[in-house]
Amino acid sequence: MNPQSYKLRRFLGNFAVYFVLTFFALVMIFPFLYMLATSFKIPSDTFRYPPRMLPRDPVEIMVTGYDEPLPLYYVDVDGQQKEYALAQSNIRVGTYAPPEDLNATVERYLSEVKPTGGAMNPQSVTVNGEEQKLFDVEVEGQVIPMILVSQTTVGEFIDPQNPETKVYRNVRLSEPVENISWHPENYREVIELNNMSRALTNTALVTILVVLGQLATSVFGGYAFARLKFPGRDTVFVFYLGTIMIPFVMLIVPLYQLMVLIGWTDRLAALIIPWIFTAYGTFLMRQHFITFPKEIEEAALLDGASRFQILKDILIPASVPALATQATFTFLYAWNSFFWPLVIINVGNEKNHVLTLALNVLRGRASDTPNLILAGAAIAIIPPLIVFILGQRFFVESVASSGVKG
Known about the structure:
The longest helix has 36 residues, at 3-38. 51% of the residues lie in helices and 20% in strands. The protein has helices spanning 3-38, 43-46, 185-194, 196-227, 233-242, 248-262, 269-272, 279-290, 294-302, 307-315, 320-336, 339-344, 355-365, 370-402, and strands at 56-58, 60-61, 70-77, 80-97, 106-109, 114-115, 124-127, 130-139, 142-159, 162-169, 175-176, 178-180. With 406 residues, the chain is an alpha+beta fold. Strand 4 and strand 5 form a beta hairpin. The chain contains 14 helices and 12 strands. The chain folds into 3 domains: 3-55; 58-180, SH3 type barrels (Roll), CATH 2.30.30; 186-402, MetI-like (MetI-like fold).
C-alpha cells in the first residue's frame, strides 16, 4: 500500500471519529449550556419564541420631551429599517367601509369616530345577513356612515433625533432593538427569595460529613475484610454485600420509624448518620486492599508496626485513586439526594432544607420566572460538576490500576 494513501486514510478515519465524538459531545452538553445561559436572562427573554441561546435586553433611549427612557424598535419607514422609539402603545385603529362597497376601506382611530345617530340612538344596517352598527367617518371633509370591518392595535413610534416625526405600526410585529446583556443578579435574587444560602450551607455540611463518614467506615471495613482473619468473615461479607440488592423504597418505612424512635425527624442528623455506612464503599476498598502486596505489610509487622499504623502510613497513602473514586461517587449521591430529605425534612422547616428541597419549593414560588429556577438549578449542578472534573483523573487512574496485577 502506498504510504501516502495509508496516511490519508488514517487521517480521514481519525477525523471522522473525532467529528462524531465532538458532535455527540456538543449534543450532550447543549442542555447544560442553555440552562446556564438562560439563568442570566430577564423573564421576558426566557419566553421569547423562537428561543435564543445568549441573553438579550431591550435597548432604551431618552427622547426630548419624555421623562422616562423609551424602548427602541426596528420600524419600516419608506422601505428602510430604522430605529424608532415607542412613545405610546395600545392605540386602537379601525378599518371602516361603506355598507354598499366593502372594498373602499379607510383607517381611523376608534377615538375619532362616533356612532351614527349618537350614543343614545345608534343606527345600524344589515350587511350579508348580519346587523352592523354605523359610524360617522370623515373622508375628505365629508361625513360618511360606515361599518367597522376590523380593528387592531398599533403603537406610536417617533424618531429619537426628531420627535416630531411619527409613524404608526403594529407593536407585536415590530422587532425590538436588543443587546447581549448578562444578569448575574439573578443568582442573588434566588438566594434571597428562597433562603438558598442556608440550603447551600446545609447541603455542603451534609455532603462533606457523609463523604468523610463513608470513607472512614469503608477504609476500616475494607481492611478488616481484606486482611484480618476471623470466624465467618467471608459469610458476613457476603451478607453485607447483599444489602446492595435491597431497593431503597423497601428501607424507607423502617428507616423512617427508626428516625421517629430516635427523635431525628426534621433534623440534619437523619441525613448524615444513616448514610455513613456503605456496602459498596467497603467492597471497593476491600478489593483494592487485596491487590496490595502482603510482603510489605508483613515487613511492617515484623518492625513492630500496629495494624492501625500500617493502614494509616502505608495503605491509605497508596490508595488515593480508590479513595478519590469513592469520594466522587459519594459526593454526587449525597449532594443530589432528594427523596430521603423530602421524607424526613418538613417542607416548612426551611432552616434544615437542602438544595434539592429548596429547588422544589422554588419551582412553585418562581413558576413565572424560569430564569430564576434555572439559576437555582445551576447553583445545584456546578459544585458536583467541578468535583467530578477534579476527581476524574483519580477515577481513571483507579480503573487503570485495577487491571494491573502485582
